[in-house]
Specification:
The complex is a heterodimer of chains A (150) and B (388). By secondary structure, chain A is an alpha/beta fold. Chain A folds into 2 domains: 97 residues, 2-Layer Sandwich (Transcription Regulator spoIIAA); 41 residues. Chain A contains 5 helices and 7 strands; from the N terminus they run βββαββαβαβαα. In chain A, helix 3 links the parallel strand 6 and strand 7. In chain A, helix 1 runs parallel beside helix 2. Chain A is elongated and about 80 Å long. The model of chain A has no long low-confidence stretch (mean pLDDT 85). Chain B is of the alpha/beta class and 388 residues long. Chain B folds into 2 domains: 133 residues, Response regulator (Rossmann fold, 3-Layer(aba) Sandwich); 229 residues, PPM-type phosphatase domain (Phosphatase 2c, domain 1, 4-Layer Sandwich). A 5-stranded parallel sheet of chain B has the order 2-1-3-4-5, with helices on both faces. A 5-stranded antiparallel sheet of chain B has the order 6-15-14-11-12. In chain B, strands 7-8-9-10-13 form a 5-stranded antiparallel sheet. In chain B, strand 11 and strand 12 form a beta hairpin. The longest helix of chain B has 45 residues. The model of chain B has no long low-confidence stretch (mean pLDDT 92). The chains are: A alpha/beta (150), B alpha/beta (388). At the A-B interface, helix 2 of A face loops of B.
Chain lengths: 150, 388
């Protein structure tokens, strides 16, 4: 299977660009590759999770490895982490040492989606209000509709 | 390398001399050992005496029993490594075709080009080695399969299976549990044991990964947690100490999520510590459902220095604590939809008056109905405690 990730070292920062999944299929290869950076005074490990939609326990082992074995407890950063994956980190306590950041493009996309959701909700509320008004002011029509006479 | 035994079957005497002369070096070095027969019947007698012959060089037209009949008899022996190379006159193509259709490995025409025959024999040997390797792997797999069955039995024996487990407290509590492994052996486990007259410990846990490594880690984790718990230490202390031991010896950064609870049978107070495990649900006697808050503590075995804390919850008479592993909420149907917390809560909303066994069965039935014929992808484990 394709390894589905890339690792780059820039000074003391190691960037791991994750693919769609981090599971038992590709986590062993990542552990092996991360092992090459032991003893290189890594201060920060950035996991770019823009594409990531699923992480299994085998994937979580890679994060534990990075924290335990690369340098003196390096800072661990997750970039553009999906909500579902954040929840897994929260349950397992990993949010205590992982910082979460979003790049501008993701932030912008999410803001737009949120704004879209709010607008849809607003429109739905207006429509409901109109219907309620109609129902209040048109008892006879509603009654006839109920009877199937309209 | 083992000697390859070759049987040459030909009614023409010079063939024997040709073989012995052409392959003399390989015969001398012990790579090949030749046997000779003048017809099919003689060949069968040689095969009966030397069953490890694996290459037959077979003439077609012979007295007593011809080569095609011999080929049919050899096929009946069902030796997957046996390779038969037909040797016949150049003009005998229809017989050669028939032999090839009946499973001969290759053919050579007379007058025999010995160099070409030598290559054909080497090709046959390659295939024979491949068959031997496959047979060896098959035997190993069969043996592994048997080991897995034994491993599953050993693993199941770790899990308490006698219900009710504490008959002397039948008037105070009702416990039931179940574990269905996704593979032959799994990484989930549950446990419960009496600490003293008034306290019962309950454990539910999920080791990362599946299969043999998870099962081995499960056995070690379960033993450590059980033996620490039996010493009567607090829930937090039990996890802190177990974590220290497991993180020290953890191979490949394995870990286990654990929910450890101590139930006071007199007061209904539960003191618990949660190490990265799914938060259990409480079904109150009146039917309302609550989920314990997330504790954000590390999984056991992940980080050695973790110091766990504990919390308490009060179970009133008729309240039920439902503990489960993520195999429940993450059970998947054939379209990859998850069973989820909402479906679990829907089931729990109708079980306030049920026994712990009925609750476990109801959840399992709900999962079975949901996933239909989709393959089980994770261990499914449930542990239910009801205060009577």
């Amino acid at each position: 299977m394709e390894e589905n990730f890339n690792i780059n070292l820039d000074g003391t920062t190691l960037t791991v660009i994750l693919g769609v999944e981090l599971t038992k299929e590709n986590a062993p290869a990542m552990l092996q590759l991360l092992g090459r950076y032991r003893g290189q005074d890594i201060r920060k490990v950035v996991f770019d999770a823009t594409e990531l939609v699923f992480i299994s326990s085998a994937g979580i082992r890679c994060i534990i490895y990075a924290r335990r074995e690369l340098g003196q407890k390096p800072e661990i950063v997750f970039e553009n982490c999906a909500k579902e994956i954040y929840e897994v980190f929260e349950m397992t306590g990993l949010t205590r040492f992982i910082s979460f950041v979003k790049d501008n493009r993701t932030k912008d996309r999410e803001d737009k989606a949120e704004a879209g959701d709010k607008l849809s909700q607003k429109l739905a509320n207006i429509r409901q209000k109109e219907l309620d008004n109609f129902a209040t002011n048109s008892d006879v029509v509603c009654y006839q509709m109920k009877l199937g006479e309209e | 390398m083992a000697t390859i035994k070759i049987l040459s079957v030909d009614d023409e005497a010079p063939v024997e001399l040709m073989m012995k002369h052409h392959f003399r070096r390989k015969i001398r070095s012990g790579e090949y050992e030749f046997f000779f027969a003048r017809n099919g019947l003689e060949a069968l007698a040689v095969l009966a005496n030397t069953p490890d012959i694996e290459i037959i060089l077979c003439d077609i037209n012979m007295p007593e029993m011809d080569g095609l009949t011999l080929l049919a008899k050899v096929n009946e022996m069902h030796n997957p490594a046996m390779r038969v190379i037909m040797v016949s006159a150049y003009g005998d193509m229809s017989n050669i075709r028939q032999a090839m259709n009946n499973g001969a490995f290759d053919f050579a025409t007379k007058p025999i080009d010995m160099d070409d025959l030598a290559l054909t024999i080497e090709k046959a040997i390659e295939q024979i080695h491949y068959v031997h390797e496959s047979q060896k792997e098959h035997t190993q797999l069969e043996s592994l399969k048997e080991d897995l069955v034994s491993a599953k039995e050993i693993q199941q024996s770790f899990l308490p299976m006698v219900f009710p487990p504490f008959p002397e407290d039948n008037d105070k509590l009702d416990i039931y549990a179940s574990m269905s492994a996704a593979k032959d052996v799994g990484g989930d486990f549950y446990d419960f044991f009496r600490i003293d007259d008034d306290h019962i410990a309950l454990v539910i846990a999920d080791v990362c990964g599946k299969g043999i490594p998870a099962a081995l880690f499960m056995a070690v984790s379960r033993t450590i947690i059980h033996s620490k718990g039996m010493q009567g230490v607090s829930a937090a202390e039990c996890l802190t100490e177990s974590n220290r031991l497991l993180a020290n010896s953890s191979v490949n950064y394995m870990f286990v999520t654990v929910f450890y609870a101590i139930f006071n049978t007199k007061t209904g107070l539960v003191t618990y510590s949660n190490a990265g495990h799914n938060s259990p649900h409480i079904v109150r006697a009146g039917g309302t459902i609550e989920q314990l808050p997330m504790d954000r503590q590390f999984m056991v075995g992940a980080f050695e220095e973790e110091v766990y804390v504990e919390k308490t919850l009060q179970l009133e008479h008729g309240d039920t604590l439902v503990m489960f592993t993520d195999g429940v909420t993450e059970a998947m149907d054939s379209t990859n939809r998850l069973f989820g917390t909402d479906r679990l809560n829907n089931i729990l909303s109708g079980v306030a008056d049920k026994s712990s066994q009925e609750i476990v069965e109801a959840i399992k039935a709900g999962i079975t109905d949901f996933v239909e014929d989709a393959e089980q992808n994770d261990d499914i484990t449930l542990l239910v405690l009801k205060r009577k």
